[in-house]
Amino acid sequence: MVLNSELKEDDFAFVYLDVDQLPVAWLAYRGVLNSCDVKTANPANLSFFLMDIVQRGLDATLRREGVLEAIRVKDHPSQLSRLKCVYAWPSLEMAARGCHGRGKFQEKNLVAIAPMERNFKRDEHDSNWITDFDSLPAIRTAKQYWTGEQTTTPLTECILSGRFAILGAEVRKRAYETIKKSNPNSLAILELSRLAVEFQSDLGSISPWIKREGDTLLASYVMRYDEIEGLQVFENAVKEWQADNRFQMNFEDLKPLTSSEKSPQLDAQFAVPDLRLYEKTFRIDKLSKLEDFARQVIDGQTT
Question: What letter would DSSP give residue 119?
Fold first, then answer.
């Protein structure tokens, strides 16, 4: 595996980001990954991982996560939940071994991350227990995972809580191209979202959202955006740039805010990204199955 030259062995942790997918590309270019318990950035308190397994509705995956969560709640409540964390690898070696060469797990998608605040949390576990979960006794395997027992050749994963900065530029450049190609009229809001990070604002964060529509649920995404806050971020950024022109601002993408010209064309270039392509409906029972599996374990109804 030929690793990105931006990556360093002593970086805090490493994640694979599929920046061909717009929601992920948006977060990657913005430069921050939040665990879903950061409520100001994730109002629905849903992780991308949980959204994915619910959307796919695979009973084996739902059962596995239900069992794992139940054992955590019963026996290890102080440990981080897999359903609310950011997943990462603790070293380049582990990241390389975890690269499957398909989906998001490709060398080109690997980035380093670093905590943005001191109050982050980090747990480590041997992910081999997860890989082999279906072929092993479920309850015992879940306990081995949470107690930190190691397999013969452990493949260690980090589960993280908090805010984490995405380091390096290469993957973020690809993320920008994804957004520019699919939603060119959202580049002004994208740049505002990136600038917001400089001022400790969650403006422009995209997060999973599930809403009920009759007898089905719609898995979608929402963006945190407030017009007044957006203008404040813009004003703060301009002041910062005026004080030090090394402060980076993409004035070309911000043209809808910086131009004195008034035109429908410029107005159209100040739009939120179209996330409808990433929506999916599913039956309500798919969402409830994960909770059912967890309840069965807690009540001692499964082994």
Answer: T
- The last residue of one of the domains, among 139, 167, 195, is 167
158 and 17 part of one domain: yes
Pairwise CA distance, residues 57 & 41, whole Å: 25
Q: Is residue 193 part of a domain?
A: yes
Q: Answer whether residue 267 is part of any domain.
A: yes
Cα separation of 250 and 182, whole Å? Answer: 19
User: How many domains, the chain?
Assistant: 2
Contact 106, 16 (CB under 8 A): yes
* Rounded distance between C-alpha atoms, residue 19 and residue 17, angstroms: 6
Same-domain check for residues 273 and 190: yes
Q: Residue 258's domain spans which residues? A: 185-277
Which residue, 284, 165, 276, 265, is CA-closest to 215? 284
pLDDT digits (tens, 9 = 90+) for 6-62: 899 999 999 999 999 999 999 999 999 999 999 999 999 889 998 888 777 777 888
pLDDT digits (tens, 9 = 90+) for 248-298: 999 999 999 988 777 778 888 899 999 988 888 877 676 677 778 777 776
The β-bridge partners of 121 are 161
Same domain, 46 and 163: yes
Tell whether 207 is covered by a domain. Answer: yes
Q: What confidence tens digit (pLDDT) does each residue in 226-261 have?
A: 999 999 999 999 999 999 999 999 999 999 998 877
Burial of 230 (0-12, 13-18, 19+ CB in 10 A): buried
